[in-house]
Each structure stands twice: as C-alpha cells, then as structure tokens.
Design goal:
Blueprint (H helix, E strand, L loop, with lengths): L2 H6 L21 E5 L7 E3 L5 H6 L1 E4 L10 E7 L2 E11 L1
Parallel strand pairs: 1-5
Antiparallel strand pairs: 1-2, 3-4, 4-5
Length: about 90
C-alpha cells in the first residue's frame, strides 16, 4: 500500500465517528497527526494558508492529559507539512 492509499484509509479529526464513511473526501487536503492522543487521525487543512499551517494547531480532545476541555497541540513536521507532530497537551 503506498502513502496515498494509507491516507485514504484514515479517519478525519472532527468527523462523525458513526458516519458510514468517516474517511477523507476527494479534493480535500489532509495532514496526518503523528503521536499523542490523536495519533493516526487526519486533519483537514483544505484552504489553509502556509502561515496557518506553519503555526500548528491546538485541537480539542478529551483523550489528552487535561481530559474534557483540554487540547492536544501539533506542529507541522519540518520539510513535511503533510505530517503534524504532537508537541504536548494544554488545558
């Protein structure tokens, strides 16, 4: 399986887990979340500017260190903006 095929098998962050097809949609751009509580999920970055990508994200999750209301922070991997690496949790 090549990298593109692997991405098509993933689940998208924020997507409805009960949806019959929770995977990525054609024509959208995604970054894979690597490490931390959201490891393996895809983040829809369609329409993001390079500055927004470079800034990273703090994504709500109850799975991190701070539980409900907490956020997991992810930064783009240097040289590979298709991967965002976990950098920690924040309240």
């Amino acid at each position: 399986m090549d990298k593109d095929e692997e991405l098509l098998c993933g689940r998208v962050y924020g997507g409805d887990h009960d949806h019959p097809r929770p995977g990525p949609k054609p024509g959208r751009a995604y970054a894979e979340l690597v490490g931390g509580p959201l490891d393996g999920l895809l983040l829809d970055i369609t329409g993001w500017t390079q500055d927004q990508i470079d800034s990273g994200v703090a994504l709500q999750t109850e799975l991190g260190r701070f539980g409900v209301g907490g956020r997991a922070t992810y930064d783009p991997r240097p040289g590979d903006s298709a991967r965002f690496d976990w950098s920690g949790d924040t309240p």
